[in-house]
UniProtKB/TrEMBL annotation:
Disordered: annotated span: 150-180
PROSITE patterns on file: LYSM
Top-level division of the source organism's lineage: Bacteria
InterPro entries in the cross-refs: Cell_wall_hydrolase_SleB, LysM, LysM_dom_sf, SleB_dom1
Annotated source species: Cytobacillus horneckiae
Transmembrane segments: none
Protein name per its UniProtKB record: Peptidoglycan-binding protein
Domain LysM intervals: 35-78
GO MF entries: hydrolase activity
Length: 212
């Protein structure tokens, strides 16, 4: 069988193209070109995404994967060069201290939640930084008065676990690429009859409802 090195796709912003690889139909959306990547021993999907400078979720979606599980020798479609039309916003840039602070917030707010939910919590903070209604830095957003319970109860001072750190890295990569503009999240089973419930819901992940 021939090894596919590089596949070039001429696409417009609204077009979808499909290729066949290892009996899977895989689509690439708004790509100038994309490659086939063979998984090496010891690699995780997160490692591959970091190496290529794209988000783990992006590779999952391109390959119709519901989880991040991969195996040695598996062939994945990976983006080579994304179209500039995809986003007008540059990705967020955080210092090590900001990443650590955000990871600690994610750990405290989303412990026990799905990985996607942890990413979404981090995205809320990043979205607030870009929103004129909120402060202009990660630290100021997180420590804004009465915004996040872990700040009030001190749980934000506990170290973040590896999954929370990974979720922050993923959220930073996705910032500027995603259309999600959620700036609030809450647990509807705990929070009831509040101003938050008047906001437009953007999505629900695990026990959290996200809104704008």
């Amino acid at each position: 069988m021939k090894t596919i090195a590089t596949v070039f796709a001429a696409v417009t912003l609204f077009s979808f193209h499909f290729i066949q690889s290892t009996d899977k139909r895989i689509f690439a959306q708004t790509l100038d070109e994309y490659n086939i990547y063979m998984v090496k021993k010891g690699e995780s999907l997160f490692d591959i995404a970091t190496q290529l400078g794209v988000s783990e979720m992006e590779i999952q979606q391109m390959n119709f994967k519901k989880t991040s599980k991969i195996k040695v020798g598996e062939k994945l479609v990976v983006p080579e060069k994304m179209k500039q039309e995809r986003s007008q916003e540059p990705p967020a840039k955080l210092s090590e201290n900001e990443q650590d602070l955000l990871a600690r917030l994610v750990h405290a707010e989303a412990k026990g939640e799905p990985y996607e939910g942890k990413i979404a919590v981090a995205e809320v903070v990043l979205n607030r930084v870009s929103d004129d209604r909120f402060p202009d830095s990660v630290k100021e957003v997180i420590y804004q008065d009465k915004q996040f319970q872990p700040v009030d109860n001190g749980s934000i001072n506990k170290p973040a676990d590896n999954e929370s750190k990974k979720a922050v890295t993923e959220a930073v990569k996705q910032s500027g690429k995603e259309d999600d503009d959620s700036v609030f999240f809450y647990n509807p089973d705990i929070v009831s009859k509040t101003w938050l419930q008047t906001r437009t819901v953007t999505k629900e992940i695990g026990n959290h409802r996200f809104a704008k």
